[in-house]
Write a structure and sequence with these properties.
The chain has 97 residues and is an all-alpha fold. The chain has four helices and no strands. It has one domain. Helix content is 67%, strand content 0%.
Length: 97
């Protein structure tokens, strides 16, 4: 019966050093505060016994999608402000490029 339940779900092999070693190997830039927080929270969950690779992936995806959403909104806002500044400069210069 468990074979039916797992049908179509790929088996994930945990590396020899364990899931924590994989997460610890993620090279997160020092300035990437949110990414570092996600990594730290995943390591904490692993330390509390939640070390299944699929669960680790699930714990990472949600915060990453939220961060990507904030990035997307921030970039769109920056693009809008750049366009406004370009129009203001063009008007100030009499439309000369």
């Amino acid at each position: 019966m468990s074979e039916e339940h797992d049908a179509g779900v790929p088996q994930v092999e945990v590396p020899e050093g364990g899931t924590a070693e994989v997460v610890e190997s993620w090279n997160v830039p020092r300035e990437a505060v949110l990414a570092a927080r996600i990594r730290t929270n995943i390591l904490k969950a692993i330390g509390e016994g939640y070390d299944d690779p699929q669960l680790v992936a699930d714990l990472a995806v949600g915060p990453l999608v939220m961060a990507l959403g904030r990035l997307e909104v921030g970039l769109a806002d920056a693009q809008r402000r750049i366009e406004e500044l370009e129009r203001a400069l063009a008007g100030r210069d009499g439309g000369r490029d």
